[in-house]
Please model this.
Amino acid sequence: MSRPLIRSLLLTALCAAGAAHAGTVYVPSPGLAPVGGSTYEVQISITNLGATVSDVRGALLLTDTDGVPRPTPPATVTIQAGRTSVIKPGAFRGMTEITGGNDVRYSARLVGTGPGRLGVYLPVVTADNLIRGGQTAVLQGLASGAGRGADLTLMNLAATASQCTASLVKADGSILAGPATFALKPLSHRAIPDLFSGSVVNDVRAVVSCTQSFFTFALLSDAATGELSYVGPAGNGAAGITPGGTPPPGVCPTGATCFDTKGVVLQPTPSHRVQRVTYPAPVGVATRLRLSLDVTVGPWYAPDPAGKTLIYWFVINRNFDMAGLLYFRGPDPTMPDANQVIARHGIGLTHPQKIKIQQPFTAQIGHTYHVDNDYDMGRGVYTVTVTDMATGLVVAQLLGTPNVRSYNLKATDNLLVDMGFPGTAVDEVPTDGWTYSNVHVEVYK
Model:
């Protein structure tokens, strides 16, 4: 359920320091009661760094409510070049969903009333910092007692329902409470207030896991001072920075069988519009299939610019067993589904049964995008990530759930990757003038 965001827009000249990158983002609105003598309100700064005006769309997704159905279209606000808008959702409680262009930046905070209340950081959840389903987030340093409290927030970022579990663990590793189970509706927000019921505790950690992509954080409050403190997911060594830089691209990860077709694979022309690469499947039970390639966007097909342009078709033998398919749609003011990225997938399903995921995305002519199709059946997570290679920014990410947990690969099986359309079917248009390159496939068993 959503309410038009435009009701609560306020245009000011604030700066958006420490901003997250553009795309579709989610900001929580905790809807806090007063803390001591202070009240707090959410402020979201949106800055257009581009040289032209930018349209930003948004909706308010009420707490503990299915956020997928949209009875009204999202509100659209135009932000002038170089300007900043500030959204104040007011007393709203839930998640603010915002979608903008590549030159838009976001940041958020809780701003307090009263002397010295500069406010506290709020997360802007993007493809870079969301937590995948099945992974575990840890919130450390939680405390309560003597007027202090701790509230936990859960955000389900998937378009399907999710189940989260949370435990409270003492510093010595013993369980203080839990595990407790929480059911979250699709694209919804859930708040668990006063985690410790006023008990005096220190150095407690919350351990949280959800079946779908999620985000979680805690707010610590002190009634005596009216102050708030934000506690986000703890970092981990596995995600650390590699000294001297990251490993070079194309290196086969440990535990994977890899296949590569390097360099330019296809530059479609009217006489040669489609290319297939075939790899012999390694025999065994596969739990993860991953494909990546680079695509440079050329001219949109003039007779139907918003037609489906095929980035890749990734299957085992035939369409029936599909580990991923991706389309870009281009601009067309007469078409409601223009400027989108669309993925489909499904094992043992006919094409009409294939699971569809889509979101707004404006592919820019002349830009090269690195596309990563990660069909992780073992973990139950399907992720398609689109990165602009010129900036290194993730410009789109589609999330879903594979419909199987593994696939038994036989000696006669082949992994097929097709690129481009011949232009002989309705709504499937050719990509003359585009470039496809550096096809890379990984198989994990």
Remarks:
- The first strand starts at residue 2 and ends at 4.
- The two ends are 41 Å apart (CA to CA).
- The chain has a mean pLDDT of 84.
